[in-house]
Amino acid sequence: MPEPLRIESGELTADEILDALREGHRVVVKTEMLGGVHEVTLRHDGSVFYCDTPTTLHKHEDEDGMRTCVMNMGYAKDE
After folding, report:
1. Read out DSSP for 3-49?
2. Cα–Cα distance between 45 and 25 in angstroms, integer?
3. What's the order of all strands across the beta sheet hosting 36-44?
4. Which of 21, 25, 51 is CA-nearest to residue 38?
5. In whole angstroms, how large is the CA radius of gyration of the chain?
6. Regarding beta strands 36-44 and 5-8, do their DSSP bridges make them parallel or antiparallel, or are they unpaired?
7. What are the DUF8001 domain coordinates in residue numbering (predicted)?
8. Distance CA 50, CA 44 (A)
9. Alpha-carbon gap, residue 79 to 67, rounded angstroms
10. Are strands 27-33 and 36-44 parallel, antiparallel or unpaired?
11. pLDDT (tens digit per residue) in 30-68
12. Which pTM value belongs to this model?
């Protein structure tokens, strides 16, 4: 398994994040939430995309769902 890709929130575009996930990387995003700085882990198991946040683990069944999530949460920069 490739090393996790560690980024700051807004450092990469949604396409760059999705490319890294499809290549088998976990993407660890350092972001501000809940009054502090936290790490969110994004991953893809080959069929489902996952967002592991400090409060919950949620899933996206397709790239469009994951793209919407990373944009809405501010993990990706505007393209």
Report:
1. PPEEEETTSSBHHHHHHHHHTT--EEEEEEETTEEEEEEEEE-SS-E
2. 10
3. 5-8, 27-33, 36-44, 49-52, 57-60
4. 51
5. 11
6. unpaired
7. 1-77
8. 6
9. 11
10. antiparallel
11. 998 778 889 999 999 999 999 998 888 999 999 999 999
12. 0.90
Amino acid at 48: V
Residue among 64, 78, 59 nearest 42 (CA)? 59
Domain boundaries, the chain: 5-72
Contact 2, 23 (CB under 8 A): yes
Rounded Cα gap, residues 76 and 29, in angstroms: 9
At residue 25, φ and ψ (nearest 5 deg) are -80, 145
CB neighbours (10 Å) of residue 75?
23
